[in-house]
Request: fold
Amino acid sequence: MIGDVTLNWPSVIEFGSGRLEKLKEHLGGCRRVFILSDPPIMTKIEPVVGELKSQSIEVQVSTDVVPEPPFEALERLLEPVRTFDPDAVVGVGGGSAMDLAKLVAVLFSGAQRAEEIIGIGKVKTRKVKLVTVSTTSGTGSEVTPIAVLTDIQHKLKKGMVSTFLVPDVAIVDPELTLTLPPAITAATGMDAMTHCIEQYTNRHAHPIIDNIALAGIRLIAANLETAVHSGDSLEARTAMALGSLYGGLGLGPVNTAAVHALAYPLGGEFKIPHGVSNSVLLPFVMDFNLPACVDKYADIAEAVGIPPHGSREEMAKQGILKIREISERCGIPSSIHEFGIPESAIPSMAEAAMKVKRLLDNNPRTVDLEGAESIYRKAYQGVVE
Ligand SMILES: [Fe+2]
Reply:
């Protein structure tokens, strides 16, 4: 029987080359606009800022974006934005810039503190317009109700989920990704692949998202290597932007599962970029999940280009190996010991991952402490069975 689902997406999604042009249209009628931008993309944003100013819109720009932002990075932004008192907040960049902008939009008034909105449904309101402009192909944050910050003290990522974090307008312009370096293209692309796989095999999977997720897997598998190795291919970049958008559209309704939960300690404690953490763990979590979702993994195998043959289980296993191969060919390490993580850290990482219950609950196979440790140990050795 077909289950229920809530689709809480931006009212407007602008997709396509040159769509950055639409930003000024969507900010028409605003008086004061705060833009938080990743520094490398500022040259592309400056002309838009000029046009906004020429329409008598006051614009304040900050490039104070750090990767995997801690709570302190958000705190730094809030005070000056409070003084500026914008009626629109725009986040331009990858997941870090967009997540920070989303949080600034709901918190700058001072009515709530960041610590109070950790978890699901804790944000009380948002009074300003929120626009996201995605400049990487992976995070999906441009269309999600989710923002993530790093808790440095507890060495863990903390997620905030709220309808008020869903942007009003999301702009996905593949031209903005043409200059992304290969390593970021690879990491963000594999993050998007992980989003699609974890949605398709999710305990709360839904046919609407299944179709989108499978289409995303097909696009990413067929185009990621080209986007990494021939970054100026607008065709590959556009396909990746669409695959990533597909992955993002499923994050609110269905969300991710054990790969993301187990990746959190790698980011929180060892500062490994989000997409890289996911990519290195993905084949090992899939291997662990295999008994619970042979058919779905066989579908995924077809989506990544394995011609149908043999048993569904054979197909599923070949799909897992193909995904690992794609990740390796994009330059991502295939074991966690390559990051210098000591084997002795595994028990504490497993304990930390068990705290990410909201994602573990989505996993097709139950992951207990022992299961989490076994996945990390296999990922440490780098051997998929
Ligand atoms: Fe992710």
